[in-house]
Write a structure and sequence with these properties.
This protein is of the alpha+beta class and about 150 residues long. It has helices at about 5-15, 20-25, 30-45, 75-85, 110-120, and strands spanning about 65-70, 90-95, 100-110, 125-135. It has two domains: about 5-45, Winged helix-like DNA-binding domain superfamily/Winged helix DNA-binding domain (Arc Repressor Mutant, subunit A, Orthogonal Bundle); about 55-135, Alpha-Beta Plaits (2-Layer Sandwich). The chain has a four-stranded antiparallel beta sheet with strand order 2-3-1-4. A hairpin with a 6-residue loop joins strand 2 and strand 3. The longest helix has 13 residues, at about 30-45. It comes from Amycolatopsis acidicola. One of its GO terms (cellular component) is cytosol.
Length: about 150
């Protein structure tokens, strides 16, 4: 990626609905030139797509927690993922360094639903134990800088 591509990505991160002409004005290119670069960024995987950003609280999913997952034995990341995917409250999961095998991000409608989700998570046959941290408030959230 060159500096112009980085500026295009930055514009799209700020407003994915911006037209090629609007982006072109910011980066100093014509709309067709911006389209060609965006197409290339999509083909190379720099851009994976465009999406709407939804406020989870507006959808009734305002309770969230991060859960350290400690598995029984040596479990592959793909096996952890396959067990977590059916749980609707799991919005993200990551393998990590340290004592835990993974960190799981849960969202729920209320503390009762979160407790139920945690019980189902702990009930998975691969899970030995969990350590949960409930989020009280969001201090900072932003997309990664290009």
């Amino acid at each position: 990626m060159n500096p112009i591509d980085q500026r295009i990505v930055s514009c799209l991160v700020q407003n994915a609905r911006a037209s090629y002409a609007e982006v072109g004005k910011v980066v100093g290119l014509s709309a067709p030139a911006v389209k060609r670069r965006v197409d290339r960024l999509l083909e190379t995987g720099v851009l994976r797509g465009f999406t709407a950003v939804v406020d989870p609280e507006a959808l009734g999913w305002g309770t969230e927690a991060f859960v350290e997952v400690h598995c029984r034995g040596n479990i592959s990341p793909s096996r952890i993922r396959s067990r977590l995917e059916p749980l609707p409250e799991v919005v993200a999961a990551y393998t990590v360094t340290g004592a835990a095998d993974a960190i799981v991000h849960l969202r729920a409608g209320d503390i009762h639903q979160l407790e139920t989700a945690l019980e189902r998570l702990r009930g998975l046959e691969i899970i030995d134990r969990t350590v949960s941290t409930v989020v009280l408030s969001r201090l900072l959230e932003r997309p990664p800088a290009p």
